[in-house]
Amino acid sequence: MTDPAVHNPSPRWSQVWQLPVLVLSIALFAAGLFMAKPEAPVDQYGQELQKVQALVVAGQFDTAMATLNELARIMPTLPKPTQGQFELLAADTMYLAQRSKGWNKASNDEGIVKHYQSARDLGQTLDNQQYDRLVDSLAELGRADEGLNLLAERGEAGADARYHLLRRMITTAMAVQPLDADKAGKLIDRLLAEPKLPTSEEVWATARQAELLMKEDRVKEAVDMLLRRIARLQDDKVDALGELMVQLGLAYLDDGDMVNGERWLLRARQSLTPDDALNADVLLGLGRIRFNEGNVTEAAEHFKDVVDQFASTHAYPPALIGLAESNARLQYTDQALADFDKAVKLIGVDPATSPDLRKQLIETLTTQFDLRFAQGEYDTALQYVNLIQQLYNPPLPADILLKLATTHEQLARKGLGLADNQTEKPSDWQKLDKNQRRQVAEHFAQAADNYLAHARAVTVEDDETYGKSLWNAGVYYDKAGLHKQAIAVFGEFVTARPNDPRHLAAMFRLAQAQQATGNYDQAVALYKQLIEEHPKSPEAYASLVPLARSYILQGPTKVDLAEQVLLSVVTDHPALRPESTEYREALIELGQLYYRRGAEGDYEKAIARLDEVAERYGGEAGPTQMPELMFQLGDAYRKSVQQIDEKLAMELPPSKKAALQAERARRLDRAQQSFDGVINSFESHDPATLTDLQKLYLRNSYFYRGDCAYELGRYDGPGGAISLYEKAVQRYDKEPAALVALVQMVNSYCELKDWDKARAVNERAKVFLKRIPESAFDDPNLPMNRKHWQRWLDWTSQMAMTSADKPAP
């Protein structure tokens, strides 16, 4: 029989010897019409056939086939006995050649059958080996019944071959999925009905009969049948009864009788040699018993013995599953996952695999998933469900998709540090570094993908579940930052589920996703629709600030519309009060709008609104949002001083001038306090969790608070400009921004007329300036402006006019 594992024979050899056979077949019918009768006597060809036979015995099949091809031209002119010998030799050569190459080609088997049948038609008698070859070729072609009938004609002479063929047919029938129990049962009965059947064959057939009954869940019948057969056969004193004892032990186990199961398995073990493959079944059964008893360690040892010693037996896959489950029970998680992975790769999605075995593996993996998920071990649970999905061809079942979705959802929540019932807040994201944010986003994206697939899988059968999973898909796409996917999902939700209680919420989220992708016109339209058509809904209230933001993002021409919307919330909205989230967000957005716009009087407006935010809400604005607002407030105070300076440059009454000077000092004080607060707050955070904007605010706070002290004339002392600028240099000594601090330190020492220190720091500043590329000063966020450069150059000129012993003029 050929090796069933070989499916791709070498095309070169096949082309070399199959073509001559094709020519041979044609020649048998046509050669007589155009070939002349050979001059050589008949016995000369008999000698040629003997030479071919010698080549075949020597394994030189190529040469043998080439010679037969030459002889084929004149075969039709020779006597029938010679033709018959030729056909037998051609069949033998083809059979032995194919089997020696490990090939399994139907065309070759058809040629072998044809040549043997032609030999019989020509009066040749097949010997036992040739009958076996003919039957084997018929079986390979799926014509085993023909072979069986052929062997039946031979009577007792074909008995051994019949037993062998019936075994082969039974094994094949029991391996086919789905199982054809009726066909397999009839074949077993036919083998058992053979006259003078040897006891070893009866034992084998009985074992298969028991196995078939167990596959049909007729376990009690299997037990009763085996008890009767063992009782009858034990008088024959045949060692082969061990296989029936194994089957009886396994049948008892399947029937739930562990005591008798173990007893018969141990009896079987005593009758088996150590290398007998049946030991794998014994060890597997004993492992099942120990596992059910709770003796998991010993169970694992039995399963491991099968895995290590009997990897080529049918007991290997279930033993591997048992070993993996035992290791999981023993908390050897990594080893358990490795063993489960081997089992999954072994069983896979091959349709030839026993569905019961695949079902067992899926159930075991599902149990492990459920345990890990319930215990909050979501990383391990994900590994288990990833293994489960490999046992299915796409599309995955709905329950597997839901497991994948919920696991990724929980992993994302875990990444945000959320407990089971905690609601997510923006601050949960703000405390993560970039890598952590990316991981959380990836889990949300996977959750969304699987929720969407789950929604598709249950659309027809469960509308409520479809809606829930579709909603979750949209929410998690949004959280993952996949706004285009969120638009598609929420768009479908709004269209397909107009009566869903979440319909307005879906419209709001759709608007947010449109806004996030830059589709501001669509976002504005949706927000306005919610506000105008459902004015008293929570979604309408929640749409006010995003509507204003969308107006701002549409460009300068729409900023006034944004201001109107925000003012409507913080001044005269009939339903929104200062304690509401919408009011707080509107107040923040309005203050930021004024800060960013920076037109005449806007800094005063920004100060008023942002001061109100700080007084009303404090930390409620968020652990990182509040420092951002404090920076903007401080910067608004700082920049508003420029407008006061412009007024002070005018001719003013002394009282007016004194009032402006006092207000200028107050604003600079408030600005410095704000920058101090920004530094204290951001420095308490992990730098990796800060955004680029927050890092910029932190850096500029170091320099701006020094500027405030400088503008107040506070040059020396612990809180003076020099001290604050020195801290900025130490904090940012590798950045171009440090130059402004050095320059301002020079300016401060010059203001104090401390020329020696001014010169010393000035040298530091010049050295530092030479290290900075010119392009670095193109950064608009650099805290150094024309005023700083001018002061530095002015004081540098003053220093040049002085010496260590000569004061400045």
Q: Using only CA atoms, what is the Rg?
A: 45 Å
Ranges where pLDDT stays below 50 over 5 or more residues in a row are 1-42
Distance between the termini: 115 Å
Helix fraction by DSSP (H/I, runs of at least 4): over 70%
The major β-sheet equals: none
Mean residue pLDDT: 87
Shape: elongated
Coarse structural class: mainly alpha
Please count the beta strands (DSSP E, at least 2 residues each). 0
Oligomer: single chain
Number of helices: 37
Give the DSSP E fraction (strand runs of 2 or more residues): under 5%
Give a brief description.
The protein is mainly α and about 800 residues long.
Mind sketching the topology for me?
Blueprint: H1 11-34, H2 42-57, H3 61-72, H4 80-101, H5 106-121, H6 128-140, H7 144-153, H8 159-175, H9 181-192, H10 199-215, H11 219-233, H12 242-254, H13 258-271, H14 278-293, H15 296-309, H16 316-329, H17 333-347, H18 355-374, H19 378-389, H20 398-415, H21 426-430, H22 434-458, H23 463-479, H24 483-496, H25 503-516, H26 520-533, H27 538-554, H28 559-570, H29 581-597, H30 602-616, H31 625-648, H32 654-683, H33 692-711, H34 721-731, H35 738-751, H36 755-771, H37 786-800
Helix pairs in contact: 1-3, 2-3, 2-4, 3-4, 4-5, 5-6, 6-7, 7-8, 8-9, 8-10, 9-10, 10-11, 10-12, 11-12, 12-13, 12-14, 13-14, 14-15, 14-16, 15-16, 16-17, 16-18, 17-18, 17-19, 18-19, 19-20, 20-22, 22-23, 23-24, 24-25, 25-26, 25-27, 26-27, 27-28, 27-29, 28-29, 29-30, 30-31, 31-32, 31-33, ...
